[in-house]
């Protein structure tokens, strides 16, 4: 089973309720929660939540590790196999669409990218900037350019690498990948709410992060030697606080841009998951309906007579 949806919509709370009721273990599908020392900015489940339900694929990499969809797919698939072997149910939860796609359908095979291609693109990045490379990606692969942020250096370079290595856009590889599946049965649940409510939840999360030590977390990461330019530190929240700590933005601007960029990220997530016709969409308050759907999927009559989560 899979729970998807935009950031801050309420996936964690729904997943914990379902996991406790149906004897599930949770497999995280978040490209940032895999990193150690990055807790507040990634909105990881709390230690208490992880104690109540076993979680996988959280804190499995260092911030400077080159963690990609292929590694996630391999580790998450193994976790699902291990969970099933213990007669438990794997519940995959997260908002990183590319990671979920890689887990369910596998990772497409592409020729190794020549060192010259990779180094050439990085040299161009340093000389021409992200904007020029993003314009090129829009020309050769407009579908991929539409789903990633112009500041997402890692995926920007990946898209251009794949096109230069294969002559085929990254999005075309992914479309072909969608025709395959590694699982015989998958229930996909999508959580949604109206835009104003979602944006309010995002603003509340940003405020919570600031109150609960996001600045101190980023300061600690820098003190550990993690450069502000590595991929993980260029992500939501971390790049904003790096810009503040290094004097480029005042704090109020950094916080405002963090909320704005998070809302834009949520909009892209909604677009990504909205293209999947197999997702069953529910409002975040439809807990009973979601539980009934899961019970029907599992062939479980435990639900009879129960009307709350």
How would you sum up this structure in a few lines?
The chain is of the alpha/beta class and about 300 residues long.
Characterization of the model:
This protein has 309 residues and is α/β, with parallel strands linked by helices. It folds into two domains: 2-106 and 181-210 and 270-303, Rossmann fold, CATH 3.40.50; 115-176, Orthogonal Bundle (Histone, subunit A). Helices cover 54% and strands 8% of the residues. It has 14 helices and six strands. The chain has helices at 11-22, 47-52, 69-85, 97-105, 115-128, 130-140, 142-147, 153-166, 170-177, 195-211, 214-223, 238-245, 251-274, 287-298; strands at residues 2-4, 24-28, 55-56, 89-93, 188-192, 279-283. It has a six-stranded parallel beta sheet, with helices on both faces. Strand 2, helix 2 and strand 3 form a beta-alpha-beta unit.
List keywords for this structure.
309 residues; alpha/beta; Rossmann fold; 6-stranded parallel β-sheet; 6 strands; globular; disordered C terminus
Tally of extended strands? 6
* Straight-line N-to-C gap: 17 Å
String of helices and strands: EHEHEHEHHHHHHEHHHHEH
Mean pLDDT reading: 91
Contiguous low-pLDDT stretches (5 residues minimum) are: 301-309
Q: Major sheet: order of its strands?
A: 3-2-4-1-5-6
Radius of gyration: 20 Å
The description of the largest β-sheet is: 6 strands, parallel
Number of structural domains: 2
- Given the C-alpha coordinates, what overall shape results? globular
Overall structural class, as computed from helix and strand content, comes to alpha/beta
Tell me the CATH architecture of the largest domain.
Answer: 3-Layer(aba) Sandwich
Looking at how many chains there are and whether they match, the oligomeric state comes to single chain
The helix count comes to: 14
